[in-house]
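Minutes, project huddle
Topic: does the predicted pose make sense with adenosine monophosphate bound?
PN asked that the exact inputs be recorded in the minutes so nobody has to dig through chat later. Recorded below.
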Amino acid sequence: MNHVVIGTLAFDSIETPYDKRERAIGGSATYFAHAASKFGPVGLVGVVGQDFPDEVLEDFRGRGIDIEGVEHAEGESFFWAGRYEADWNTRHTLETRLNVFADFDPKLPESYRDADFVFLANGAPAIQRKALDQVRSPRLVVADTMNLWIDIARDELIDLLGRIDGLVLNDEEARMLTGEANLFRAAGKILEMGPKFIVLKKGEHGAFLFGEEHRFALPAYPVDNVVDPTGAGDSFAGGFMGYLAHTASLDPSSQRAAMLYGTVTASFCVEGFSTEEIGLHGRGAVDRRYDALRAFVTP
Ligand code: AMP
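Predicted holo structure (C-alpha cells), as shared on screen:
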C-alpha cells in the first residue's frame, strides 16, 4: 500500500443554518480516504467502536479503500458535534467525545509500512507520531491538526512538526499555533518549526500553498449550494495527496495541480452532508471540475 492515512472514523452531529443531521458518518480519515480513493488505492488506519456499521466499512472497501488497518475496539466510536454560523466559515465545536480513539494505539499492517505517501489526518499528535514511527522511509509525510490539539497537546504537536514535510491547517489554527495575526507571518513561523510547506485553508476563500521556495494561491471552487462544510479540509487533503501519490511527483508544478485537485474534491464534499456527495462522483467528474477550475483562474 503506497498511500496510507491515519485518522478518525466518527459519528458527527451537525447543525448548519438550514438543516441538521444526527450521528452521520464522518471522521478525518473517512473524508480523506473518500477523496484520495478517486486517484488510486489508499490504506486506512483508525479505530471504530461496536456501534460503527459494517456496511460503511464494506462500502469503503468497494471504493478501493483498504480497511486492513481499521481496528475494532470495545466501546463507542469517536463522536463530534458542531454548528456553523451563516457565514459558513465560523464553526463551533459543541462536543468532542474521543471514546475508543482515546486509547488508540495504531498498528500498521505490514503491507502499509513501506508506504511512500503518508497523511496524518486530524487526530491526537501522539497517535499521529506513533503511526509515523512505523513507516520505514516515506517520501512525503503531511499532517493536519485542529484547535483542540493545539490547545491540549501543543508540545507533542510541535515535536511532530519537526518530522513532517507538509502541514495543512486553516487560518484560525495557524494564528492559534503561532500567535501571529498576519497569515504570512504565521506561515513563515510554521515553516521555521519544521515543515517544508504548509497548505493554509481559508474555507470559501480558497487555499494558499507556502513553500520554502514557492507560493501559490487558489480560490475555492465556486459552489452555489453549500450544504455542510464538514470534512472539506480532509477532502481537500485527500485530493491533494491522492493526486501526488498517483503521479509520484513532488515538483512545484505537481504541487500546484494537487492544490487544484484538493479544491475540487473539497467542493464535492461541501455539497452534501457526510460523504453523500463526495461518495457519488468518480475520477471523470473530478477531472471535469478540475478543467473548469483551471479555466476559472486562468487569464
Ligand atoms: P474538517 O471539517 O475537515 O475539519 O473535518 C471534520 C471531521 O473531523 C469531522 O468528521 C469530525 O468527526 C472530525 N474531527 C472533529 N474534531 C476532531 C478532532 N479533535 N480530532 C480528529 N478528528 C476530529
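Observations noted during the meeting:
- The domain at 3-297 is CATH 3.40.1190.20 (UDP-N-acetylmuramoyl-L-alanine:D-glutamate ligase).
- The CA atoms of residues 100 and 284 lie 37 Å apart.
No decisions taken; revisit at the next huddle.
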